């Protein structure tokens, strides 16, 4: 019996940024992107909040972002126990 070792087929997918072909393999440092440029463009879009994950507003969001704790003036000192 002989054992043959064949390299697994490399899968090609569409680059999420430009739509071009991209090698989906461990040796592609930009996977799933086709290039460093496409990876950086996508990262920049997330960083500038061009992409957002849709969520339902929570009860905390309805108060305009103010704390729901007791109001304090700027001159109050924290209480230590």
From TrEMBL:
Question: Where is composition skewed (Low complexity) in this entry?
Answer: 68-81
GO BP annotations of the record are:
regulation of DNA-templated transcription
Q: Which UniProt keywords apply?
A: Metal-binding, Zinc
Q: Which Pfam families does the record associate with it?
A: YacG (PF03884)
Q: Where is this region: Disordered?
A: 54-81
Entry-linked SUPFAM superfamilies: Glucocorticoid receptor-like (DNA-binding domain)
Q: Which GO terms describe its molecular function?
A: zinc ion binding
Supply the HAMAP family for this chain: DNA_gyrase_inhibitor_YacG
Q: What is this protein called?
A: DNA gyrase inhibitor YacG
């Amino acid at each position: 019996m002989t054992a043959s070792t064949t390299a697994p087929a490399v899968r090609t997918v569409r680059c999420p940024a430009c739509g071009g072909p991209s090698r989906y393999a461990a040796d592609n440092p930009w996977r799933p992107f086709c290039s460093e440029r496409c990876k950086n463009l996508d990262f920049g879009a997330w960083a500038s909040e061009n992409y957002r994950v849709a969520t339902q507003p929570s009860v905390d969001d309805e108060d305009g972002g103010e704390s729901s704790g007791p109001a304090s003036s700027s001159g109050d000192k924290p209480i230590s126990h």
